[in-house]
Amino acid sequence: MNTLFLTYAGAALPLLLLFAVAGQSITSVLTGEIVATELVRSLVGSIGLVASVPIATWMATTVLSIHRQPKLDRAAD
Q1: Nearest to 45 by CA among 2, 13, 4, 1
Q2: What is the reported pTM?
Q3: How many other CB atoms sit within 10 Å of the CB of residue 11?
Q4: Domain boundaries, the chain
């Protein structure tokens, strides 16, 4: 979780520096469209990262279970 937070903080650092240089107040920064876009982007990225592990596991087990089904013994026919 710390790595994910630091990744998003590092990606948003240029945006935060831009606001600091522009001299805007913290309330106008937090309610701005650019910040809202970054928050939604971060949220969607986090959901994708969290969902990728169970989805990849499900896909791997499905593929392996199809390929490892027992073969019928033809000598008994």
Answers
A1: 4
A2: 0.50
A3: 13
A4: 2-69
